[in-house]
Amino acid sequence: MSSAPAETTMATTGDSRDGALLQVRDLTTTFPVRSQGIVRRVVGKVEAVTEVSFDVDEGETLGLVGESGCGKSTTGRSILQLVRPDSGSVRYAGRELVGLSAAEMRPMRRDLAMVFQDPFGSLDPRLPVSELIAEPLRIHKVYPDESALRARVEELLGLVGLKPEHRSRYSHEFSGGQRQRIGIARALAANPRLIVLDEPVSALDVSVQAGVVNLLEDLQERLGLSYLFIAHDLSVVRHISDRVAVMYLGKVVEVGAAASVYDNPRHPYTRALLSAVPLPDPAAERRRRKSRVVLSGEIPSPANPPSGCRFRTRCPKAQQRCADEVPLLRASDSAGRHTFACHFPEGDPDSAA
Question: pLDDT tens, 214-239?
Fold first, then answer.
């Protein structure tokens, strides 16, 4: 068990590394709960994101995973200041983003882009593809010359595997996978360095998911992009991510290299998520059934989260300490590259059975 001072340090800094492109520290975002009726008074708050900390390095993909409603998407939107956080710090390339006005954020948005889950709902059906892709270029006045702008649009179409003749079509004329490629081209328009991908393949058929994921990997290698890849599909996340952060009810409970988190999960919630992923080998799947972790109960309301460890109401290892003390992120190795927030982690000889 790590000493108390070490745990306190990890709780404050997460998996801190100097020089990271994106540094998120103690990010907290809440939404008001209002009463019913004509006068809708604020009667509480929903803690969507609570003291979240992690880094994203240059050229790296950090996968952010968890069940629906855990706060993943709100985290991504809070980082880009599309949702204003209550507190915490978001530093991009050394500059603090929290507290910037809309006008101050505008030049930063050339470097920061987002790809949304629903490729149909995120594209204006009234505009042809050429205008959908050109819109961010016009906003940032990157290509004031129309001929240069048209050439850039055609270049972007080629980058995402679409043809120049597609530029005059409308979004409803494309398949879901093609629409997501248009969304990716739009995100790439102003040459960003960091892209937040919010469930980019979850709305697509399984048959086209691999094509989009392979495209993202190819673009990252060619353009030197950094990704925050938000998803609930752990198989996709393992394929594309260098590191993984696991969220539960607004808090990060485990962060580490993808291989380390998947092969040696320390938090019981991470282990439960992984045990729910089916194995391609039927014999191995049958053998694993005996050790599968099945979570009981429902996810608590973020408007009234449990005391102490938020996972304790569903955790098979929970003890009184879990209700009394908030577990701090602590390292499972001397390098501090794999951290977790649990009083009784997996693989700990002192852990409860």
Answer: 999 999 999 999 999 999 999 999 99
Domains contained in the chain, CATH given: 4-111+192-340 (3.40.50.300)
What are the tens digits of pLDDT across the range 311-330? 999 998 899 999 999 999 99
Q: By the 8 A CB rule, do 63 and 270 touch?
A: no
196: Cα within 13 Å, side-chain hemisphere: 21
Q: What is the pTM of this model?
A: 0.89
Residue 251 region, left (φ>0) first, then alpha (ψ -120 to 50), else beta? beta
State the Cα–Cα distance between residues 240 and 226, nearest whole angstrom. 12
Which DSSP string do the residues of 135-169 spell out, in sequence order? HHHHHHTS--SHHHHHHHHHHHHHHTT--GGGGGS
Q: Which of 334, 328, 338, 333 is nearest to 260 (CA)?
A: 338
User: Chain-centre distance of CA 117, in angstroms?
Assistant: 12
d(Cα 67, Cα 276) in Å, to the nearest integer? 12
